[in-house]
Design brief:
The protein has 8 helices and 10 strands. By secondary structure, it is an alpha/beta fold.
């Protein structure tokens, strides 16, 4: 197998201040555990799919030849500086573009200086990839629902499996998105909403204890369960990760390292 690891992570700039909140610290420690798993698996490439990099005109892949700069967080621009420098695997990006097009998902690669890389990808890479392993980034297509996102992931996983490198696939997404609407003291941050807290607890319970029959429908079951709540992109990240598996379905319970608040929203760090 070329894809040797899969992870679901949440990331916001608050995680760069883990000293301020025990929930942030738990999430950051979860990143450390996954980083260690990547090292054990000998990961040589990381492929990011982020709900905060949105693609509208087809499917978009990052192929930046000089992807570096200083990012300004569009929401918490005064909290922390976000310098970034990515080592982008341009060849993999172009191969993925070709694979997507062949499967009926036309798109494009982007390669220009000062590209506005999204905050979660910058933060996640800083916490997961301090050694600057080459990466590729895939945008979240707003017009692909869960089943189509799964189809896209299945087609791209075939491209990745044809490579010689050991690849880690990382889905970057929040669970709930009920952000605080007023300025808060980060030391007092918490997951906002009683129903949201119940959903997070139920989500963790299901993904960590599901049997084989429940795993087969886990992605759709959780999306259905989330109806009526503020959920990040309809939990499409589950369809994305599911599609990268050999069978195209979840096959075993997840290892959830941590959940916690991210300015009222709920974050998760888990290894599949």
């Amino acid at each position: 197998m070329t894809i040797v690891a899969r992870a679901l992570v949440s990331a916001e700039s608050q995680l760069l201040r883990p000293d301020l909140n025990s929930g942030y610290r738990k999430l950051v420690d979860g990143y450390s555990a996954i980083q260690q798993e990547f090292a054990k698996a000998g990961v040589e490439r990381v492929v990011y799919w982020s709900t905060r990099w949105l693609s509208v005109l087809g499917q978009t892949f990052q192929a930046g030849s000089d992807l570096s700069g200083t990012h300004v967080d569009e929401n918490w621009h005064d909290s922390v500086e976000l310098p970034f420098k990515f080592n982008v695997d341009q060849k993999l990006a172009r191969d993925l573009l070709d694979g997507a097009a062949a499967a009926g998902f036309p798109g494009q690669c982007v390669d220009y200086r000062a590209f506005p890389v999204d905050t979660p990808t910058i933060v996640a890479d800083r916490l997961l990839n301090p050694g600057k392993i080459p990466v590729t980034m895939i945008a979240c297509n707003v017009y692909c629902d869960g089943p189509r996102t799964r189809e896209l992931a299945m087609s791209l996983s075939k491209v990745m499996e044809a490579r010689r490198e050991k690849i880690a696939v990382v889905g970057i997404s929040l669970l709930t998105t009920s952000f605080h609407t007023v300025t808060i003291d980060l030391r007092e941050d918490y997951i906002r909403g009683e129903k949201e807290n119940e959903f997070v607890a139920d989500f963790v319970r299901r993904v960590t204890t599901a049997n084989s029959g429940q795993l087969a429908t886990l992605s759709q079951d959780m999306a259905d369960h989330a109806r009526g709540l503020r959920i990040d992109m309809g939990l499409k990240v589950m369809s994305w990760l599911e599609g990268t598996l050999p069978s195209g379905r979840f096959e075993r319970p997840w290892k959830v390292q941590a959940t916690g608040p991210l300015y009222g929203a709920s974050g998760i760090v888990a290894l599949l």
